[in-house]
Write a structure and sequence with these properties.
The chain has 389 residues and is of the alpha+beta class. It has 3 domains: 126 residues, DNA Polymerase III, Chain A, domain 2 (Roll); 117 residues, DNA Polymerase III, subunit A, domain 2 (DNA Polymerase III, Chain A, domain 2); 110 residues, DNA Polymerase III, subunit A, domain 2 (DNA Polymerase III, Chain A, domain 2), CATH 3.10.150. The chain is elongated and about 85 Å long. Belongs to the beta sliding clamp family.
Length: 389
């Protein structure tokens, strides 16, 4: 880009800029010792205004509709400052212009520094800027399209399984969602080792097998800002080689280049039960209420809860040496021949909350096997590991 001239500027509606900056600030880390990572990159040219933000793992480019502009230029400005100015502007348009300013270097000499002048009605701001050449990029060429999703399908599927992403760093490869295409089908899967959710879908344009792990932050960005959007996902290459640890995710006016978690996701098919011979059908809200009641006493701390049958009915029971015990009877039938089973009440409640519709089905094999939860969406299977009670 050429050096800033007096004719370089862009005018933009405050609400449009504020919306784009909300997206950008979801990428920018608040506390960072590298100054340029606290900024967004503003680029103006024939394609209009593009706002870039990165944390070195995700690079997002947001195309923004401007009112007017001139020149071809780029500069970096503090992300929080620009967002605050846009928020304070209300409905008044902003005029953003890069410039050079003379400053005293403290030794009796003048130096030229980069700055950005923002004008909002009668208000004006002179904000220090960083050279756009210092803004880090995630290098690579866009290659083959892996998949195309319409009408927000991809973020919607991510939401269905994201509650099972691990937050512990000991098994870093579980800190995201596994997106895979295998002979068993195309799926998005998350697990923390105690519970698991997997969502099947039809697709895969290339027909090739793959397995990628999308980081937790990337998942959050997609589900928060691209809800309802048509999405295309591309592989990244350097030279003739495919980069297995990076993807391009595009939506209208947005490109997200994200690093992936470099690791091997566990074979989750091994823990998904098959041929379960016992099943409990119950209303989701009734089961949630029963869980709350069973864990209501003594400022409940123990996660273990026991499911068993009495007189053919499903009972939930908890015991605490200090607080006593609680028993809750439900309207659901207890399967004949099924022994009692224990599980983590918090995990169970969390999985129930992620279910859709009013009715759920709990599949069981025996006391030592995981249980499954299915709802009206038959493409999603949720698994909760048993525990000893």
């Amino acid at each position: 880009m050429a050096e800033a001239s007096i004719t370089d500027f862009v005018s933009i509606e405050a609400k449009v800029l504020a919306k784009a900056m909300k997206f950008a600030n979801a990428i920018v880390e608040v506390r960072n010792t590298i100054p340029v990572l606290n900024t967004v990159k503003l680029t103006f040219g024939p394609k209009g205004l593009v706002i870039g933000a990165t944390d070195l793992d995700i690079l997002v480019s947001i195309e923004v509709d401007e009112i007017d502009g001139a020149g071809e230029w780029s500069t970096c400005i503090a992300a929080r400052d620009l967002a605050n100015v846009a928020a304070a502007a209300g409905t008044t348009p902003l005029r953003i212009a890069p410039k050079r300013v003379e400053r005293d270097n403290g030794k009796g000499r003048q130096r030229q520094d980069r700055a950005v002048e923002i004008t909002v009605g009668e208000a004006s701001y002179d904000i220090p800027a960083v050279d756009a050449a210092d803004f880090p990029e995630l290098l690579g060429d866009r290659m083959q399209r892996i998949e195309r999703f319409t009408n927000g399908q991809f973020p919607a599927m991510l939401k269905k399984v994201s509650n099972c992403i691990s937050t512990k760093e000991t098994r870093y490869y579980l800190n995201g969602i596994n997106w895979s295409a295998k002979p068993q089908g195309k799926r998005l899967t998350a697990t923390d080792g105690h519970r698991l959710a997997t969502c099947r879908y039809d697709g895969n344009e290339t027909g090739e097998a793959f397995s990628y792990i999308l980081p937790r932050k990337t998942v959050s960005v997609l589900t928060t800002f691209l809800d309802g959007a048509d999405i295309e996902i591309f592989s990244i290459g350097k030279g003739n080689a495919i980069v297995e640890t990076m993807l391009d995710i595009t939506a209208p006016a947005v490109t997200i280049r994200t690093k992936l978690i470099d690791g091997t996701y566990p074979d989750f098919d091994r823990v998904i039960p098959s041929n379960q011979n016992h099943r409990i059908d119950i209303r989701r809200e009734e089961m949630l209420v029963a869980l709350r009641q069973a864990t209501a006493i003594g400022n409940w701390r123990g996660p273990a809860i026991r499911l068993h049958g009495i007189n053919g009915r499903l009972h939930l029971e908890t015991k605490n040496p200090d607080a006593g015990s609680a028993k809750v009877v439900t309207s659901a039938a207890w399967p004949d021949g099924m022994s009692e089973i224990g599980f983590n009440s918090r995990y169970m409640a969390d999985m129930l909350k992620s279910c859709q519709g009013g009715e759920i089905s709990i599949g069981m094999t025996d006391a030592g096997a995981p249980i499954t939860l299915t709802d009206e969406d038959k493409d999603v299977i949720r698994v909760v590991m048993p525990m000893r009670v």
